[in-house]
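Researcher: We plan to redesign the surface later, but first we want a full-length starting point. Tokens attached.
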């Protein structure tokens, strides 16, 4: 009989994977100037490396979730982390810009499916009233990465080389695969699972509206974060040594948000999502006004980070509206957020390229957050307050 670990141990093992993913995703943004120099390209072109990873998430999340519908969740999580390790290991050895684009795309493929399946496993181990808190624990791995992993990656890139960052992430992914193999519950594949059943989620309007909220509303945070390092040096006048500190403050905001906000979301899920979107819009609008001084930009960066809890809230919302297509819907949440990861940097870069200045990303971000809020209003108008649907998110455990 397989040993059963407490939910907290399982959540921690899964969160290590979130830490690895968060480090590579956000560090690539903060290391954009180093990537540009190392690959012999300009800064806007280096942004395509970030977009390639996001595209991998967008494509890989639904594809892997559907194709792996008949696999046991524990087996799938291990396989996804091994894929992630391979992609990042290859990124560390990329000989030029075009190979780097390809390897970052490969690295992004397992991202969404891992988080989606990990969220379902985490939620299945706790009572219904604690689902969002459980999902938040998994996402804490990602947010702690923004506090610790990304600043350390920034320093590692400055001291040694940006390639070391991707190599360390590959090692973290291998560690995650080992921990999941040890701690995750041994489950049997769902006998009723099928591609057709997973695709059932796509027939539900509330699923699409929830995904659209994330794809548009979360883009504002990425618009600012991608160009934060450049804004700090070019506008704030901060030294490069201060960049890791500011990134850590942003990550601290995300971490606290994912600890506190899920407790409210488990009581009032959709109102919490709407409140987060308005909060983000307001803080992003203040960002250009605060960018002139390190003392004013720090609290605003922290406040923008708090809005990152939107991902956890929408993950739980998808569990409620996806019907039997739980795996696909859960994975698609990360496709949506990496669509935001592509839209935000693109829109922010467009504003900068047209001479509006580094701080214009704040106004771009505010517009995107408000766009997400408009979609939230539509979702509320057409069934946003409906009761949770029957879900099949509990794995069948073997004994």
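Model: Full-length starting sequence:
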């Amino acid at each position: 009989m397989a040993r059963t670990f407490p939910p907290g141990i399982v959540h921690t093992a899964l969160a290590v994977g979130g830490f690895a993913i968060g480090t590579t995703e956000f560090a690539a943004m903060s290391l954009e100037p180093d990537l540009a120099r190392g690959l012999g390209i300009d800064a806007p072109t280096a942004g395509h490396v970030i977009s390639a990873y996001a595209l991998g998430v967008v494509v890989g999340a639904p594809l892997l979730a559907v194709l792996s519908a008949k696999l046991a969740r524990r087996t799938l999580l291990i396989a996804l982390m091994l894929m992630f390790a391979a992609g990042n290991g290859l990124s560390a050895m990329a000989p030029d810009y075009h190979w780097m684009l390809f390897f970052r795309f490969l690295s992004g493929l397992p991202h969404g499916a891992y988080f989606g399946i990990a969220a379902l496993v985490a939620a299945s181990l706790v009572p219904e009233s604690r689902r969002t808190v459980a999902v938040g624990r998994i996402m804490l791995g990602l947010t702690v990465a923004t506090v610790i992993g990304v600043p350390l990656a920034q320093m590692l890139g400055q001291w040694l080389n940006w390639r070391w960052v991707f190599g360390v992430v590959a090692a973290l992914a291998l560690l995650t695969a080992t921990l999941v193999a040890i701690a995750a519950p041994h489950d049997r594949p769902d006998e009723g699972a099928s591609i057709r059943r997973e695709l059932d989620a796509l027939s539900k309007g509330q699923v699409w509206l929830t995904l659209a909220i994330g794809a548009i509303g979360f883009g504002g945070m990425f618009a600012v974060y991608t160009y934060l390092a450049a804004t700090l040096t070019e506008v704030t006048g901060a030294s490069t040594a201060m960049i890791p500190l500011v990134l850590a403050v942003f990550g601290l905001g995300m971490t606290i948000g994912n600890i506190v906000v899920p407790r409210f979301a488990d009581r009032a899920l959709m109102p919490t999502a709407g409140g987060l979107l308005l909060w983000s819009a307001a803080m992003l609008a203040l960002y250009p006004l605060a960018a002139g001084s390190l003392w004013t930009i720090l609290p605003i960066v922290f406040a923008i980070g708090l809005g990152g809890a939107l991902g956890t809230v929408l993950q739980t919302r998808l569990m409620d509206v996806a019907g039997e297509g739980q795996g696909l819907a859960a994975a698609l949440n990360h496709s949506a957020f990496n669509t935001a990861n592509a839209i935000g940097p693109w829109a922010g870069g467009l504003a900068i390229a047209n001479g509006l200045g580094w701080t214009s990303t704040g106004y771009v971000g505010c517009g995107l957050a408000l766009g997400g809020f408009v979609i939230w209003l539509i979702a509320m108008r057409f069934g946003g307050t409906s009761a949770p649907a029957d879900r099949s998110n509990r794995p069948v455990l073997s004994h």
